[in-house]
Amino acid sequence: MSEEIPLPTLAEYGFSENTGFLPKDLPATSLSDAYYGKWEAIANNLPSLILTRKIRNVVDRLPILDVKPSLLSNIRELRRAYSVLCFIANAYVWGIGETCDTIPDAIAQPLLRISEELEIAPLATYASLVLWNFKPVINDTDLVDDILDLSNLTTINTFTGGLDESWFYLVSVVFEREGSSCLVSGLKAIQAVRDNDSGTLIEQLEIIAQTIDKLGDILMKMNEMCDPHIFYHRIRPFLAGWKNMEEVGLPHGVRYGSNGDYKVFAGGSNAQSSLIQAIDIILGVEHFPYGKQKTDQGKTISAESNQNNFLKEMRGYMPRHSTQFLNHLSSVSNIRDYVLSNPNNERVTLAYDACVAILKSFRDKHIQIVTRYVVLQARKKTSGSETLKTGLAMTHGKKEQKGTGGTALIPFLKQCRDETGSSAASEWGKKILSTAVLRVKDDSSIPGIQKRSGQEDSEQGRKRAKLGLGSDLNDDSLDDSGVGRTAGHW
């Protein structure tokens, strides 16, 4: 029984109540050993090397460097080395405009060794791009109130050197930090169930609901400083992996080293965020293999697709301790069962269904973002930019858009959203969440939002309007392939 298993603590897995799945200590911004100076030089000049199309020529001249014991024993520097090599590897494969199916030994050998030590996939992942790739602009609490505030963060490395790419990663950094309270309250809520303490359970569920609501607001900040056109054509191609990439010249994936094996990996994806999976586990939200659904009898009905569960697969792309924490959390999750077994406790049911409703609303917002940044961009006619020849952008205009993780994009996200709604405990909640569709407009259309922020006539507000936040996109604007039936106005 789950009561016999001790609850996990964040500390035992190396996490903090204040930062969640972000590292407790700030990421290393460079490798201290000058021996690895050539790695750092390439990573720090990546935008220029990509722009001048010299990335492969330079990497091909690299010597094969040993992964020293001193590096393996220093977790901060090991993560830094992983991030550096992942940036270089993805840039090498995608950075010239024509794909390359072999990563040179000078990158492949140390990357495989370091990835093995960290137990994480050897390519650009959410961890290498986000979790271990940020730094405060001012690291002094005497000068700034919060060193991890979005206004005080910057990235360590990017592919493009642009603000849009940095913003794309940094919004996720703040997202992870803000979401840490979901982990804290989730563990307290699980303990409350064990103690049969419905009062504490309700209190913690309310905190979780409020935090998920904040996470939705943070997600929508993406529109402020990351332009959809730049994201789709300049940034997204570098985030792709080498799974399901036959049509762009990687039928077997990528070979690691001149004599290495071909390997297939999904690209960096927000599905590799441990936070959202943790929230699902805490609330008992089940997700099924893509193309399958749960029936009232608890069985699944197969649709056309017979793919494996993508979200479970993504745990292999997370840092080792994150995966271990999620597995431990799954073994003690008890909140939904408790709510279902106490149907007469209306306050508990209401608190739980509120969490589910807000999580579904969050996933609606995610679909909105993906529609704006991927689906609508894929439908727009262009003049044949060179960028379109790179990676995922080579699928420009095709009916079914894939995510960087290799899935059919909108259908997958819609299934996750619908599975969230079906997790409601009350029949009334299930009915409401099975029919309601969130309509996200720009801030000016939501009463009180701009008045509260004091930006009613600000330049930022004008920029957000220009980015198209006034469009009214919902499920009716998308067909089942994930392509919008209306092209929008970008």
From TrEMBL:
Q: Which InterPro entries match?
A: Indolamine_dOase, Trp/Indoleamine_2_3_dOase-like
Q: GO: which molecular function terms?
A: heme binding; indoleamine 2,3-dioxygenase activity; metal ion binding
EC no. given is 1.13.11.52
Which GO BP terms, alphabetically?
Answer: 'de novo' NAD+ biosynthetic process from L-tryptophan; L-tryptophan catabolic process to kynurenine
Annotated GO CC locations? cytoplasm
Q: What is this protein called?
A: Indoleamine 2,3-dioxygenase
* Sites where the protein binds heme b: H366
Q: Which residues form a coiled coil?
A: none
The record's listing under PROSITE patterns reads: IDO_1
Stated family: Belongs to the indoleamine 2,3-dioxygenase family.
Q: Which reaction does it catalyse?
A: L-tryptophan + O2 = N-formyl-L-kynurenine
| Keyword Iron among record annotations | yes
Specify the taxonomic lineage: Eukaryota, Fungi, Dikarya, Ascomycota, Saccharomycotina
